[in-house]
Amino acid sequence: MNFHKRIGIISLAVGILAAGIGQSPAPVRADVVWDHWTQADALQAAGNSKGAVPHWQFLTDYYASNGDWENAALFSGKLDSYFDEIGDYDQAIYYYEQENKFWVNAGKDWGAVKLQRADQIRTTVELYREESSESIVQALTQPKGSSLAKFEPAYGTYLGIYSEQDPKVGNIFTKMQSVYGKKHAIYLAYAHWGQTFPSSYAKRAKDAGGALQIAWEPDDGLDPVTDGAYLRSWAREAKAAGIPIFLRFAGEMNGAWVKWHGNPAQYIAKFRMLHDVFAAEAPNVAMVWSPGDVPANDIDPYYPGDAYVDWVGVSLYIEPYENGDPSLPSMLATSNVERLTRLYNTYSDRKPLMMSETGVPHYSHSAGEDYTEWAKLNLQRLYEIMPYKYPRLKAITYFNVDQGMSNAKNDYSLSTSSDIQSYYSGLIANPYLLSDVKDAAKPTDHVGYVPIDSNHPAFTKQTRIVPFIKIPDVYIGKVEYLLNGRVISSQTSLPYGLELKAGEVPEGSVLQLRILNKSGQQVALRTFSLSSQVSVDINGATQQFEQPPVIVNGSTFTPLRAIFEAMGAKVDYEASTRTVTATKGSTVVKLTLDQSTVYVNGVAKQLEEPARLVNGYTLAPARFVGETFGGTVNWDGSSRTVTITTK
Q: Which residues cross the membrane (predicted)?
């Protein structure tokens, strides 16, 4: 909650940067360089910024080649501002990123605001889809080279909320399901060093079948935080609560707006001390280290180390105006998605991430403006795109508060707008958003999500695809979906997404997304390779194969050994003769690879297509494989599913 006390970091950076540009350092007096400089100044003063561009480009390259990073950054700044103003966003992004690089080389962090602007005007179109194979999903959601953290789900994202100021819920957490249609997994409470353990909140969370996130804040700084009777008693009460507790101690420590900022070594020592105390006294407590997403350059020095951190959290908000001030530039083009990237890339290989606090306002009190459409756009990004794009994001806690005219003067509340309440309820109905905290938790439908890319091009049966679309115009007019050149759907309202059946998407298909702005102009067209695969159900259970079924000359080929063994047969293979022998009860089947004749109890039968090796696996026609041991085989073309029934 300390986010709401911070003072215009980005605005301050803009002011510093503007001052730097206004006080240009004395130019080098080499004739060619001086000529470019003076000509650029004259052209800009005459209102001909376009004419000044080649001079700015020369000067940028010249100063960069000489290691004069400040001058290189200043002239890059002139270029990115010009290209941004004329709507040449690709060029603007290039120079914004280059300017940031030059400022970093100069030892200054003034480029952070430029990177933010680059993200605002960057056109992004990505696609994510459902995936029913747990092994594929968990390859993305598991930590690299280590086990799951305390209370970490195998995959999926815990639903969390701060509801104390929600007029429809308050602190009666059991109301969440009736108000929003779904039980939540984590409830947020604030506590302060020196005060007693918030046992009433813990009891209410327990009554609701949930866990508790505690934001524990040392309001008098870190000096009073010591190991003693108070801390030990607090820890024992946490254990007695009998529920999972996520302890977020001294969050947003990277921000100068909190009293525990400014001494990373002291912070680390206190955090480690607390970790050791809770490890001894309260094993139901997971330690959450939770900076704010800005200022980004001050985050890493405060990290206590992998051995002392269970989860990495973050306070991450977006809003129409910086700090609720309509006199500052609009922040509508800033999406929540990109703001997690740096922290995620730094820590997600080692730790699960949670959004300890986050919110999307639908009304700005300071401006008196309604932002319902913008809120819907970013709520979908928060609850669909971010968990799919960042599969190690394992918890999201929403700051459900109408601030009125205090702090950032935004209405983040989910229930003050019936439209937002209904929209939120629809988003969180997704089983991927988990309602129960437990080790290795999973969605009830066992469905995860993967990006549609070269590593995940194919699905089985049916899938839902969800696009992440961001354009400089902010608001999207229409999304058109083209499959193999034909428009199959178009959408003009949120949330965006499309259901597809396998029978609609043959191998080698091409899916395109055409994006139009509110004026009806096409602003993006992206192409994705997408295919479906044949699936096999045996007695109602979908089979998972290392080698999926394939279509050969119009016939469906399925893995022979895997299906025979699933049906209770014993399978042997003789490499010298390339012969497969399968036995179940009194039935013996023999076949040789690449030969059409098979023998069932010594009787020859002919296959339309012979069995063959595919990627080292023996595949044979599905009907033969399913019927050989008495199964009934059917084919569902809409889902491209072979069904085998043996009982």
A: none
